[in-house]
Amino acid sequence: MPATDSSSAATSVGRSFLSLRRDHHNHIPSDPHHSNSSDLHEIDAFQRHAADLLNDLVLSVSDSDSDDPFLSLAWTRRLLDSFLICLEEFRAILLGLGLAGGDLARPPLDRLLHDFLDRAVKVLDLCNALRDGLDLIRQCRKHLVIAAAALSSSSDSAAPRGEAQIRRARKALTDLTILMLDDKDVSGGGQRNRSFGRATRDSSASHGHGHHRRSSSGGSSGSGSGSHLRSLSWSVSRTWSASRQLQAIGGGLTVPRAHDVAATGGLASAVYTMGAVLFAVAWALVAAIPCQDRGLQAHLATVPRSFPWAAPLTTLFDRILDESKKKDRKHSCGLLKEIHQIERCSRQLIEVTDTAEFPLPDDKDAEVQEATQELLQVCDSLKDGLDPLERQVREMFHRVVRTRTEILDYLSRPHNATG
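That's the R3H domain-containing protein sequence above. Prediction below.
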């Protein structure tokens, strides 16, 4: 499966970070005080870089000229870029400590790492549910394309749109509305048998923690078999809840004690930082993308201002919550900007075409033409943005699996092992 450009960049950042640690410890093996000071400096640099990445996301929120509008597909891809970079740097710090002869299996660091790994594994189901949500948006786009094609079929003609065109478009928009409404309050359904664990289309192949078998139809391709809209089911269990999963990921994430920070050479702060970033990104993705039983009740406990990333992360939470409380977004199946455009365009076209007079009067026909152009723009945006975003969520899944496996492997070694 091809890697995204962002994942390649994240890998490059992580490798360069790790190689710097190797070179550094190869040159100063005899001065433990110097080494400890250097470790603290690198951990501080990691936290400051996380702050910079989060701050860039926050600044783009208030930038009206930004190419990546807040909660758009493009902005969500930037969010995942930031997460992948943070994860690679975190992994490099931990493995760098191991290569330098440190021992991650000593308390209290072993306990903190196992706690982080428990949170990380909970993100894997969330990634599968997010893929389902992106698939739902892809299904919505199919209805948009049908409506846009019907309404724009006489755009090159001076003749106004006729009854047959309007009825075809309204049928597609009605199906779209049913699809979106049906998934707003969905509490389950059959299993879609989709998972990021699928490395190939061979039904016998598997990878990582993804274990659901993928159907031959591919789930998102759609078919002419006459299957109803509710055939779009979820790959997680009927009782699975994105809201509860977020609470499990963020629950009990506490600021490390000063004693633990000192005892771990500062690594306790790095583990806490990565745990907070993991939860924040998962929370933002659930806010943006349709998920089974989605909800934003979970919230990160107050972070001390001594952490450089505390302010931008808190601002990000607050801005997303503010967006979710807006009157026209409260009952949306996701806060993604493109979902809002889908709902608004569909509602507008249904209202404009709600007439028994055919062909449409010139004024209404002009309204339809204007709304259709916006509909076409939404279709193009979804066409260009959905696949890259899905690849990044897939990359998030596999990076979390790899990081978790490497840390567990290191923790399982004898305590007297030396890198």
